[in-house]
Description:
Strand content: under 5%
Helix content: over 70%
Distance between the termini: 140 Å
Number of helices: 1
Order of helices and strands: H
Amino acid sequence: MSIEMSLLFGAIGTLLGVLGAIITMKKDSKNQGASEASIFSKVDYIARGVDDIKLDLKDQARKIESQNERLIRVEESAKSAHKRLDKVEGNSNED
């Protein structure tokens, strides 16, 4: 009878150990899933931020290109004005 009781207690202990391990694995799996979901949401947030930065950089590049074109036109206009002034001064020196 003592052998039967020890086998029964051994079987119950083994069963409880297996159940405890299964419950622990499920909890770990749930915690890991929550952790991964948090990481994925943070990565997604960072990706959206990077996309916004890229759009801002493209907009800045367009503005700089526009200003470069305007600067070239102003320099050409100033050069033309200097030539006209040189002609006017040359004509007034002849008088």
